[in-house]
Amino acid sequence: MTDLTRMTATDLAGLVASGETSAVEVTRAHLDRIAAVDDRVHAFLHVDTEGALAAARAVDERRAAGEQLGPLAGVPVAVKDVLTTKGVPTTVGSKILEGWRPPYDATIVQRLQAAGTVMLGKTNMDEFAMGSSTEYSAYGPTHNPWDTDRIPGGSGGGSAAALAAYEAPLAIGSDTGGSIRQPGAVTGTVGAKPTYGGTSRYGLVAFSSSLDTPGPCARTVLDAALLHQVIGGHDPRDSTSIPQPVPDVVAAAKLGATGDLTGVKLGIVREFTGEGAEPGVMAAFRESVDTLAKLGAEIVEVSCPHFRYALPAYYLIAPSECSSNLARFDGVRFGLRVGDDGNRSLEEVMSLTREAGFGAEVKRRIMVGTYALSSGYYDAYYGQAQKVRTLITRDFTTAFEQVDALISPTTPFVAFPIGARTADPYQMYLADLFTIPTNLYGGPGISVPCGLSEGLPVGLQVMAPTMADDRMYRVAAALESVVGTFTPPAL
Amino acid sequence: MTTTLPAYDEVVARYEPVIGLETHVELGTNTKMFCGCPTDFGGEPNTRVCPVCLGLPGSLPVANKAAIEATIRIGLALNCSIAQWCRFARKNYFYPDMPKDFQISQYDEPLCSDGYLDVEVNGELVRIGIERVHLEEDTGKTLHVGGATGRIHGATESLVDYNRAGIPLVEIVTKPVPGTGALAPEVAKAYVTELRDVLRSLGVSDVRMEEGSLRCDVNTSLNLPGEEWGTRTETKNVNSLRSVERAVRSEILRQASVLDAGGRITQETRHFHEDTGDTTPGRSKETATDYRYFPEPDLVPLAPDTAWVAELKAALPELPRLHRRRLQEQWGLSDLDMQSVLNAGAVELIEATVAAGTTPAAARKWWLGELSRRANETGVELADIGATPAQVAELQGLIDAGKLNDKLARTVLEGVVDGEGSPTEIMTNRGLEVVSDTGALTAAVDEAIAANPAIADKIRSGKVAAAGALVGAVMKATRGQADAKTLRDLILERLGVQG
Q1: pLDDT at B150
Q2: Summary mean pLDDT of chain A
Q3: A210, A323, A346: residue with CB nearest B297
Q4: Which end of chain A is more exposed for a tag (fewer CB within 10 A), N or C?
Q5: Do A324 and B102 make contact, defined as CB atoms within 8 angstroms?
Q6: pLDDT tens digit sequence for B183-195
Q7: Final residue belonging to a domain, choices B254, B281, B308
Q8: A265 counts as catalytic
């Protein structure tokens, strides 16, 4: 019998729709797989067995009743623990929310339900999405299915690892500086960051409001596009949501899959091809560029001179916003409360709660952000970073006057060993060197597997203009049509 | 401290006060500033809340357009410039009644700025500069229980009610107001009164100081003539118009006594006490919290359409001060008479009564006469007396139609005030209508003639004036429900005498 866990979401949906298999069978296969391998991967923080089976049964009943099912009905999805799920624990990878069961569903979760997908559970992540390795999860690291001694990327390492370990065919991530794309790259899976405002943030526990973008993760470009189509689109509950329909990413992925890129002009970001990236990563990238050229794409080199300031600007803007967004975790209304013994003052209880509830990286960023927003320092730090952001946006718009999309390696290095970069925050921050500019600009970016380096996956990033998400899907699908998908060794 | 306070007149002869006022107004929108929860006052604690106004993780604000419109209208009524582009900002500080531990407010980009409001003090116009008008969200309310005072000291538990959290709040800040001298307290009161009337005329808030929908902080400083302005204090908990005046006066006296003793004024927040009329120090502003303001990234910038703003401006109601002047002319009142109408709080009541069809004189007679008397006796505001302008107009209509006389009307009005129903209902239910049924009256007249043959003879012999005695007898018999003139004519007719 075919292993249901090895199939694409597209194929699974087809089998469920035709009645060749049931949503319950598909769900059970994935729950069994999780039970078999997740002790070694630790992709999940919570597996919602009952909820998943109930959702699957509902899909089967709808089909039996002759209802028309959506393109992903009956397909299991793993959801990053950054999205609120009604009645289902939501921790954001932090001790401060341990045991919290939100009273409401995120918009994306509602859309997943409406589409008939089956939520398997909540995936592991760096605490509050701050990190590039999932090592900063308060609940222990996730292991890369390609080599369980290595990191699966972060912050959405759980979602990417769940895909690579065949625990789920689809997953949801959130990308603030690369948290969808970089884990995609180092696990050999596809991760797309939609245009900022193209997917709703309502119910996404905020890290950095002006950068956070939820998006799809999958093992194929078409699956990612289908998921993107389901979760995307305007949400009146999110003021920053764009009131326009989602670009037709599914059609674009199908067009790309024909392997024809004639008339497409791609720009290699000069600043991202010098030093900084591992030779093996650069080799795989160069080879992919040749492939894209063979598919008919015109390749040019473009300069984005301000990208070199992206990392420092990001590490002022994101911490500043996080210092404010994370203030509400004070022990008063939800989550952890420490030291409330009737003798301590409110400030002491708040302080003890935050001291005990937040991990070191979260505290570091809260402190940096608090400092950067302080009176007398605001202009020099937060204000200056906003100006850099404007310059980076200008680099993008100038580049997109010359080319349809930009390409670069997704991340400078392949999956590194667990523990290798935790001692020096800057070494960790470098993992997002190539992904951060897109977040500052607000455009879409996708990471697609493009090869291996020393037996580990390498990702190629395609960046497109805002609300031109379809372009990156076309290019990614074209590359995928040649290089194929990548299967890790058996766990 | 047992310092004797100097005399007010003597103080303001030596020192020049500078005042400034910060007013917070809760808007009367149907829903909260950033979510769909209702805004009605009161309600069981924590029943008018949702993930957004509770600041639950993941929730996001969406700005209320009605609140933005109301703020722009306030700005326009206060002659402000309306920003073509501005942003909300986060004001960060930890406090349990602040669900997100930051308040969404506005900082260096207020929606409205640089306007003025003219107020009348002792017949003279004083122009109060308006620094800014901005929009923000209200906080929840903390209740300290278990202690004697209801304050945090001595309390065993603190409870938070988030029903109020997220209600749209408009902050109106004046520029410093120098040069009012001894009149400073009155100017402050006149400003808040006028502002309240403007807000009421705009229909943007119920402006009830006692329910906290209009809250006022008063800044006061003193300086010697020719010298720089002094250090200011900010007095909070000023919960009535009278308190505004008292708070300024009290702060002027207190600061003068400190300065006279060679002391320095500390920049601080002070708390006004309604019972004693004093202020006591609150938290010091010298170690002010750094609010770390930054533009709210969860909301898009506000860019009010110029044409829309122009429409709102064109549709503004007449300013209360100009409106009052126009009414005074229409009603033909002297300044003194108008002042007594104002003092009685009867302007809008009379206006509404007139609008319902009563003459200004009659409307004024009822509101300033019988109803004001009742209001004084029972210690309620005239507006809350229990009679509405429509009812007063109805009452006067019954008089004009000859169904009630003046005396009966007073009885009916008492019934209205006591909640017995409308004037017509009370008249009918209590049988107070003037008897105009000639059959019934004729019977009563004939009875009176039969009972008073001597008087009847006098009248028959031409002493028509004697008819008054028979009128009185019939009135007595009909409990005053006859119209005196009709009655007199009928008596003469029955006796065959020409009137």
Answers
A1: 66
A2: 97
A3: A210
A4: N
A5: yes
A6: 999 999 999 999 9
A7: B308
A8: no
| B335 and B455 together in one domain | no
CB atoms within 10 A of CB A67: 12
Q: Give the domain extent around B407.
A: 319-429
Q: Could you tell me if B416 and B464 lie in one domain?
A: no
A-chain residues within 8 Å CB-CB of B99?
328, 333
Distance from C-alpha of A91 to C-alpha of A83, rounded to nearest angstrom = 9
Question: How far is B280 from chain A, CA to nearest CA, in Å?
Answer: 24
As a whole number of angstroms, the distance between CA B276 and CA A414 comes to 74
Q: Which residues of chain B neighbour A324 with C-beta distances below 8 Å?
A: 90, 92, 102, 292, 294
- Let me know if residue B3 belongs to a domain: no
The answer to whether residues B218 and B73 belong to one domain is yes
Q: Are the beta carbons of B57 and A237 separated by less than 8 Å?
A: no
Indicate whether B150 and B232 sit together in one domain: yes
Answer yes or no: is B314 within a domain. Answer: no
Task: Specify whether B303 is located in the same domain as B335.
Answer: no
User: Looking at the structure, do residues B446 and B348 belong to the same domain, yes or no?
Assistant: no
The DSSP code sequence of A436-467 is HHHHHHT--EEEEEEEEETTEEEEEEEE--TT
Buried b (16+ CB within 10 A) or exposed e, A112-131: bbebbbbbbbbbbbbbbbbb
- Is B216 strand, coil or helix? strand
A327 interface with B at CB cutoff 8 Å = yes
- Mean pLDDT, rounded, of chain B: 90
Quick check: is B499 in a domain? no
The pLDDT score that the predictor gives to residue A441 is 98
- Residues A198-257 have pLDDT tens digits of 999 999 999 999 999 999 999 999 999 999 999 999 999 999 999 999 999 999 999 999
Test the A interface: residue of B33, B59, B141, B145 with most A CBs within 10 Å? B59
**Structure ipTM:** 0.96
Whole-angstrom distance, CA of residue A162 vs CA of residue A173: 11
- Residue B216 and residue B244 share a domain: yes
B56, A333: Cβ pair inside 8 Å? yes
* B238 pLDDT more than 60: yes
Task: Kindly report the CATH number assigned to the domain that includes residue B457.
Answer: 1.10.10.410
Rg (CA), chain A: 21
Helix, strand, coil percentages in chain A from 3-state DSSP, rounded to 5: 45, 15, 40
Q: Total domain count for chain B?
A: 3
Chain A hits for B51, CB-CB cut-off 8 Å, are: 102-104
**Interatomic CA distance for residues B159 and A436, integer angstroms:** 43
Q: CB contact, 8 Å: A298 with chain B?
A: no
Residue B453 has pLDDT above 60, yes or no: yes
The domains of chain A, with CATH numbers, are 4-260 (3.90.1300.10)
Q: Are residues B397 and B448 in the same domain?
A: no
Task: Compute the Cα dihedral for A289, A293, A296, A298 and give only its sign.
Answer: positive
Look up residue A257 and give its DSSP letter: T
- Cβ distance A106 to B58 less than 8 Å, yes or no, reads yes
Q: Would B121 be classed as within a structural domain?
A: yes
Q: In this structure, is the dihedral angle defined by the CA atoms of residues B236, B239, B245 and B250, taken in order, positive or negative?
A: negative
Q: Note if A193 is an active site residue.
A: no
* Residue in A422, A368, A380 with CA at minimum distance from that of residue A208: A368
Q: Which pair of tokens denotes residue B189?
A: 């009161």
Alpha helices, H only, B418-452: 423-429, 438-451
Q: Does residue B157 sit at the A interface (CB-CB below 8 Å)?
A: no
A333 with B55: Cβ contact below 8 A: yes
Q: Which of A30, A44, A33, A26 is nearest to A80 (CA)?
A: A44
The terminus-to-terminus CA distance of chain A in angstroms comes to 20
